[in-house]
Amino acid sequence: MYSKICKWHFIIGCIIVTGFCSCRQLDVFEKNATIPGYNWKADQPATGSFFISDTSARYNIYIVLRHTDAYQYNNIWLQIGWQAPGDTLYTQKIDLSLGSDAGGWEGAGMNDIWEVRKLIRSDVLGRTGEYKFTISQLMRENPLPNVMSAGLRVEKQP
Question: Could you give the CA distance from residue 2 to residue 147 in angstroms, rounded to a whole number?
Fold first, then answer.
């Protein structure tokens, strides 16, 4: 009887120790702006900001875009605005692939909603402080229908 109790205490102790050892903080920021009526106007950018305190770490920066299955194109042209603390606004045009006729939609889907996350930058962010961003659509169709949200995800690399 005593050996069974010790065995269970040992197993429970191992589970607790494993739980504490496997816990680590994941430094992630994600900000997604909902597109009103799922019609994204070119003059209504998704905006946000995030704070960086560790300037020695590398960060992965992703565009996160959610669209419906009724979206008409295999890609979307975006203009990304990026402003480091105390710096001027830097802009970059990106042709973001969302799928293909042969392979279907990229990303994760549930029913008729699709979310794609694409790495656009992996870098050391050299300044401490608040970083600001804007994401605008540059497609010929304006407003662009069936886009639900757009945003940015920043992950600190382990």
Answer: 63
Asked whether the beta carbons of 128 and 41 are under 8 A apart, the reply is: no
Q: Residue 122 sits in which domain range? A: 27-156
Asked, for residue 19, whether it belongs to a domain, the answer is no
Report the candidate in 127, 136, 19 with the shortest Cα–Cα distance to residue 11. Answer: 19
pLDDT tens-place string over residues 111-121? 999 999 999 99
**88 residue type, one letter:** T
| Residue found by looking up tokens 């419906």 in the block | 68
| Number of domains within the chain | 1
CATH code of the domain covering residue 51: 2.60.120.260
**Residue 38 forms part of a structural domain:** yes
| 14 belongs to a structural domain | no
Classified as helix, coil or strand, 26 is: coil
C-alpha 98/C-alpha 75 separation (Å) is 5
Counted residue by residue, the chain has a size of 158
pTM of the full structure:
0.80
Tell me the two tokens of residue 87: 């710096």
